Amino acid sequence: MAARRPLIAGNWKMFGRRASLGELSQLWAAVADAAAGIDVLICPPAPYIQNAAWAARETGLLIGAQDCSPAADDAARTGEVSAAMLKDAGARYVIVGHSERRALHGEGNALVRQKADAALAAGLTPIICVGETQAERAAGRVAEIVGVQVRESAPADPRIVIAYEPVWAIGGTATPTIPEIAEVHALIRENLRASLSGEANGVRILYGGSVGPKNAAEVFSAEGVDGALVGRASLKAADFSAIILGHPAART
Ligand code: 13P
Protein backbone atom coordinates (compact mmCIF):
# COMPACT_ATOMS: atom_id res chain seq x y z
CA MET A 1 0.00 0.00 0.00
CA ALA A 2 1.02 3.61 -0.47
CA ALA A 3 3.17 5.11 2.29
CA ARG A 4 1.37 7.25 4.80
CA ARG A 5 1.78 10.95 4.07
CA PRO A 6 3.38 12.72 7.03
CA LEU A 7 1.27 15.26 8.92
CA ILE A 8 2.84 17.91 11.16
CA ALA A 9 0.18 19.83 13.05
CA GLY A 10 0.38 22.92 15.24
CA ASN A 11 -2.13 23.27 18.08
CA TRP A 12 -2.11 26.91 19.14
CA LYS A 13 -4.42 26.13 22.10
CA MET A 14 -5.72 29.40 23.67
CA PHE A 15 -2.74 31.48 22.60
CA GLY A 16 -2.31 34.23 20.04
CA ARG A 17 -4.25 37.12 18.53
CA ARG A 18 -5.26 38.06 15.00
CA ALA A 19 -1.77 39.52 14.52
CA SER A 20 -0.30 36.05 15.16
CA LEU A 21 -1.62 34.99 11.77
CA GLY A 22 1.37 36.85 10.31
CA GLU A 23 3.33 33.76 11.34
CA LEU A 24 1.58 31.79 8.59
CA SER A 25 3.23 33.58 5.69
CA GLN A 26 6.61 33.39 7.43
CA LEU A 27 6.08 29.69 8.04
CA TRP A 28 5.18 29.02 4.44
CA ALA A 29 8.15 31.03 3.18
CA ALA A 30 10.43 28.81 5.28
CA VAL A 31 8.95 25.41 4.38
CA ALA A 32 7.25 25.76 0.97
CA ASP A 33 10.08 24.16 -0.99
CA ALA A 34 10.75 21.40 1.52
CA ALA A 35 7.23 20.47 2.55
CA ALA A 36 5.84 19.22 -0.76
CA GLY A 37 5.57 15.71 0.67
CA ILE A 38 4.25 16.74 4.10
CA ASP A 39 0.84 17.96 5.25
CA VAL A 40 1.42 21.06 7.40
CA LEU A 41 -1.55 22.06 9.55
CA ILE A 42 -2.19 24.97 11.91
CA CYS A 43 -5.10 24.87 14.37
CA PRO A 44 -5.63 28.42 15.69
CA PRO A 45 -8.29 29.42 18.23
CA ALA A 46 -11.79 29.21 16.73
CA PRO A 47 -12.36 32.98 16.18
CA TYR A 48 -9.31 33.09 13.92
CA ILE A 49 -10.02 30.09 11.71
CA GLN A 50 -11.63 32.07 8.94
CA ASN A 51 -8.88 34.68 8.90
CA ALA A 52 -6.27 31.92 9.04
CA ALA A 53 -7.83 30.16 6.06
CA TRP A 54 -7.76 33.46 4.17
CA ALA A 55 -4.14 34.13 5.15
CA ALA A 56 -3.20 30.61 4.00
CA ARG A 57 -5.20 30.71 0.75
CA GLU A 58 -2.20 30.99 -1.56
CA THR A 59 -0.02 28.64 0.44
CA GLY A 60 -0.07 24.89 0.94
CA LEU A 61 -0.82 25.29 4.64
CA LEU A 62 -3.89 23.53 6.00
CA ILE A 63 -6.08 25.08 8.69
CA GLY A 64 -7.90 23.17 11.41
CA ALA A 65 -9.89 23.58 14.60
CA GLN A 66 -9.21 22.46 18.16
CA ASP A 67 -12.65 21.09 19.05
CA CYS A 68 -16.18 20.73 17.67
CA SER A 69 -19.69 20.03 18.86
CA PRO A 70 -20.77 16.38 18.98
CA ALA A 71 -24.02 17.43 17.29
CA ALA A 72 -23.87 16.90 13.55
CA ASP A 73 -26.89 19.06 12.71
CA ASP A 74 -27.70 22.69 13.52
CA ALA A 75 -29.17 22.73 17.01
CA ALA A 76 -30.06 24.92 19.99
CA ARG A 77 -26.63 24.57 21.63
CA THR A 78 -25.51 27.96 22.92
CA GLY A 79 -21.77 28.45 22.67
CA GLU A 80 -21.07 25.39 20.57
CA VAL A 81 -19.57 25.34 17.10
CA SER A 82 -20.42 22.53 14.71
CA ALA A 83 -18.01 20.69 12.47
CA ALA A 84 -20.02 21.90 9.47
CA MET A 85 -19.48 25.53 10.56
CA LEU A 86 -15.75 24.92 10.98
CA LYS A 87 -15.63 23.43 7.49
CA ASP A 88 -17.57 26.42 6.16
CA ALA A 89 -15.02 28.76 7.81
CA GLY A 90 -12.14 27.02 6.03
CA ALA A 91 -11.04 24.24 8.41
CA ARG A 92 -10.04 20.87 7.00
CA TYR A 93 -9.15 19.08 10.24
CA VAL A 94 -10.35 19.18 13.84
CA ILE A 95 -8.61 18.00 17.01
CA VAL A 96 -10.95 16.05 19.31
CA GLY A 97 -10.40 14.58 22.75
CA HIS A 98 -7.29 16.58 23.58
CA SER A 99 -6.21 15.71 27.14
CA GLU A 100 -6.83 19.30 28.22
CA ARG A 101 -10.47 18.91 27.20
CA ARG A 102 -10.68 15.45 28.71
CA ALA A 103 -9.29 16.78 32.02
CA LEU A 104 -10.78 20.31 32.20
CA HIS A 105 -14.17 19.56 30.64
CA GLY A 106 -14.63 15.94 31.70
CA GLU A 107 -14.80 14.70 28.13
CA GLY A 108 -14.94 10.91 28.00
CA ASN A 109 -14.38 8.47 25.19
CA ALA A 110 -18.07 8.31 24.19
CA LEU A 111 -18.27 12.09 23.72
CA VAL A 112 -14.96 12.16 21.85
CA ARG A 113 -16.28 9.45 19.54
CA GLN A 114 -19.42 11.55 18.85
CA LYS A 115 -17.24 14.54 18.00
CA ALA A 116 -15.09 12.45 15.67
CA ASP A 117 -18.22 11.10 13.97
CA ALA A 118 -19.59 14.64 13.59
CA ALA A 119 -16.28 15.75 12.06
CA LEU A 120 -16.29 12.94 9.51
CA ALA A 121 -19.93 13.62 8.64
CA ALA A 122 -19.02 17.26 7.90
CA GLY A 123 -16.04 16.29 5.76
CA LEU A 124 -13.40 17.21 8.33
CA THR A 125 -10.54 14.91 9.32
CA PRO A 126 -10.65 14.29 13.09
CA ILE A 127 -7.35 14.11 14.96
CA ILE A 128 -8.29 11.95 17.94
CA CYS A 129 -6.00 12.41 20.96
CA VAL A 130 -5.16 9.60 23.34
CA GLY A 131 -2.53 9.20 26.04
CA GLU A 132 -1.86 8.05 29.57
CA THR A 133 -1.14 10.06 32.73
CA GLN A 134 2.10 9.75 34.68
CA ALA A 135 0.35 7.66 37.34
CA GLU A 136 -1.08 5.30 34.72
CA ARG A 137 2.35 4.82 33.16
CA ALA A 138 3.92 4.22 36.58
CA ALA A 139 1.26 1.59 37.26
CA GLY A 140 2.08 -0.23 34.00
CA ARG A 141 -1.33 0.60 32.52
CA VAL A 142 -0.31 2.30 29.24
CA ALA A 143 -1.55 -0.47 26.94
CA GLU A 144 -4.85 -0.78 28.81
CA ILE A 145 -5.61 2.97 28.99
CA VAL A 146 -4.54 3.85 25.47
CA GLY A 147 -6.19 0.71 24.08
CA VAL A 148 -9.55 1.59 25.60
CA GLN A 149 -9.25 5.21 24.44
CA VAL A 150 -8.55 4.12 20.86
CA ARG A 151 -11.28 1.48 20.73
CA GLU A 152 -13.92 3.73 22.33
CA SER A 153 -12.99 7.15 20.85
CA ALA A 154 -12.04 6.28 17.28
CA PRO A 155 -14.67 5.64 14.59
CA ALA A 156 -13.99 2.69 12.28
CA ASP A 157 -13.00 4.93 9.40
CA PRO A 158 -9.59 4.94 7.71
CA ARG A 159 -9.67 8.74 7.24
CA ILE A 160 -9.10 9.40 10.96
CA VAL A 161 -5.79 10.53 12.47
CA ILE A 162 -4.69 9.46 15.96
CA ALA A 163 -2.39 11.61 18.11
CA TYR A 164 -0.56 9.85 20.91
CA GLU A 165 0.00 12.54 23.53
CA PRO A 166 1.15 11.23 26.91
CA VAL A 167 -0.46 13.66 29.36
CA TRP A 168 2.74 13.93 31.39
CA ALA A 169 4.78 14.94 28.34
CA ILE A 170 2.58 17.93 27.42
CA GLY A 171 3.76 21.42 28.25
CA GLY A 172 7.01 20.44 29.97
CA THR A 173 10.29 18.99 28.83
CA ALA A 174 9.94 15.26 29.51
CA THR A 175 9.13 12.91 26.66
CA PRO A 176 8.99 9.13 26.40
CA THR A 177 12.07 7.46 24.95
CA ILE A 178 12.06 6.65 21.24
CA PRO A 179 11.43 2.91 21.90
CA GLU A 180 8.57 3.84 24.26
CA ILE A 181 6.98 6.03 21.58
CA ALA A 182 7.37 3.26 19.00
CA GLU A 183 5.84 0.74 21.38
CA VAL A 184 2.69 2.82 21.98
CA HIS A 185 2.30 3.65 18.29
CA ALA A 186 2.42 -0.07 17.52
CA LEU A 187 -0.20 -0.86 20.13
CA ILE A 188 -2.44 1.92 18.80
CA ARG A 189 -2.28 0.41 15.31
CA GLU A 190 -2.96 -3.02 16.75
CA ASN A 191 -6.11 -1.65 18.42
CA LEU A 192 -7.19 0.02 15.17
CA ARG A 193 -6.93 -3.34 13.43
CA ALA A 194 -9.75 -4.64 15.62
CA SER A 195 -12.22 -2.36 13.82
CA LEU A 196 -10.43 -1.52 10.57
CA SER A 197 -8.48 -4.70 9.77
CA GLY A 198 -6.03 -4.00 6.92
CA GLU A 199 -7.22 -0.40 6.52
CA ALA A 200 -5.60 0.35 9.89
CA ASN A 201 -2.28 0.46 8.03
CA GLY A 202 -3.36 3.67 6.29
CA VAL A 203 -4.23 5.60 9.46
CA ARG A 204 -1.69 8.24 10.42
CA ILE A 205 -0.53 8.21 14.03
CA LEU A 206 1.15 11.37 15.33
CA TYR A 207 3.24 11.87 18.43
CA GLY A 208 2.61 14.94 20.62
CA GLY A 209 4.10 16.25 23.86
CA SER A 210 7.10 18.58 24.13
CA VAL A 211 8.14 18.28 20.49
CA GLY A 212 10.49 21.12 19.57
CA PRO A 213 13.26 21.98 17.11
CA LYS A 214 15.81 20.08 19.20
CA ASN A 215 14.09 16.69 19.43
CA ALA A 216 11.81 16.64 16.35
CA ALA A 217 14.15 14.70 14.06
CA GLU A 218 14.65 12.04 16.73
CA VAL A 219 10.90 11.75 17.35
CA PHE A 220 10.28 11.41 13.58
CA SER A 221 12.81 8.57 13.49
CA ALA A 222 10.65 6.44 15.80
CA GLU A 223 9.03 3.44 14.11
CA GLY A 224 5.38 4.10 13.26
CA VAL A 225 5.48 7.87 13.86
CA ASP A 226 3.74 9.62 10.95
CA GLY A 227 4.23 13.17 12.19
CA ALA A 228 3.67 15.35 15.23
CA LEU A 229 1.08 17.39 17.08
CA VAL A 230 2.96 20.40 18.43
CA GLY A 231 1.82 22.90 21.05
CA ARG A 232 4.14 25.70 22.21
CA ALA A 233 6.68 25.28 19.43
CA SER A 234 4.01 25.79 16.74
CA LEU A 235 3.31 29.39 17.76
CA LYS A 236 6.42 30.86 16.15
CA ALA A 237 7.24 30.25 12.51
CA ALA A 238 10.96 29.92 13.29
CA ASP A 239 10.42 27.02 15.70
CA PHE A 240 7.69 25.27 13.76
CA SER A 241 9.56 25.47 10.46
CA ALA A 242 12.65 23.98 12.13
CA ILE A 243 10.50 21.06 13.29
CA ILE A 244 9.08 20.53 9.80
CA LEU A 245 12.53 20.69 8.20
CA GLY A 246 13.63 17.99 10.67
CA HIS A 247 11.31 15.46 9.04
CA PRO A 248 13.01 12.96 6.74
CA ALA A 249 10.42 13.71 4.04
CA ALA A 250 11.45 17.39 4.02
CA ARG A 251 13.53 18.08 0.94
CA THR A 252 16.43 20.30 1.86
P1 13P B 1 3.45 21.01 23.84
O1 13P B 1 4.07 20.78 22.48
O2 13P B 1 3.43 22.45 24.24
O3 13P B 1 4.03 20.09 24.88
O4 13P B 1 1.91 20.61 23.72
C1 13P B 1 1.58 19.40 23.12
C2 13P B 1 0.14 19.37 22.85
O5 13P B 1 -0.67 19.29 23.76
C3 13P B 1 -0.30 19.48 21.44
O6 13P B 1 -1.65 19.20 21.30
SSE blueprint:
Layout: E1 7-11, H1 22-31, E2 39-43, H2 49-55, E3 62-65, H3 83-89, E4 93-96, H4 99-104, H5 109-122, E5 125-130, H6 134-138, H7 142-153, E6 161-164, H8 178-196, E7 204-208, H9 216-220, E8 227-230, H10 237-245
Parallel strand pairs: 1-2, 1-8, 2-3, 3-4, 4-5, 5-6, 6-7, 7-8
Helix pairs in contact: 1-10, 5-7, 7-8
The protein binds 1,3-dihydroxyacetonephosphate (13P).
Rg is: 17 Å
Bound molecules: 1,3-dihydroxyacetonephosphate
Amount of beta strand: 5-15%
> Any idea what the CATH architecture is?
Alpha-Beta Barrel
The CATH topology corresponds to TIM Barrel
Compute the number of helices.
Answer: 10
Give the CATH class. Alpha Beta
Describe the structure.
The structure is a single chain. By secondary structure, the chain is α/β, with parallel strands linked by helices. It has a single domain, classed as TIM Barrel (Alpha-Beta Barrel). It is built from 10 helices and 8 strands. An 8-stranded parallel beta barrel has the order 1-2-3-4-5-6-7-8, surrounded by 5 helices. Helix 2 (49-55) links the parallel strand 2 and strand 3. The longest helix has 19 residues, at 178-196. It starts with 6 loop residues before the first strand and ends in a 7-residue tail after the last helix. 48% of the residues are buried. Bound molecules: 1,3-dihydroxyacetonephosphate (13P). 1,3-dihydroxyacetonephosphate binds next to strand 8.
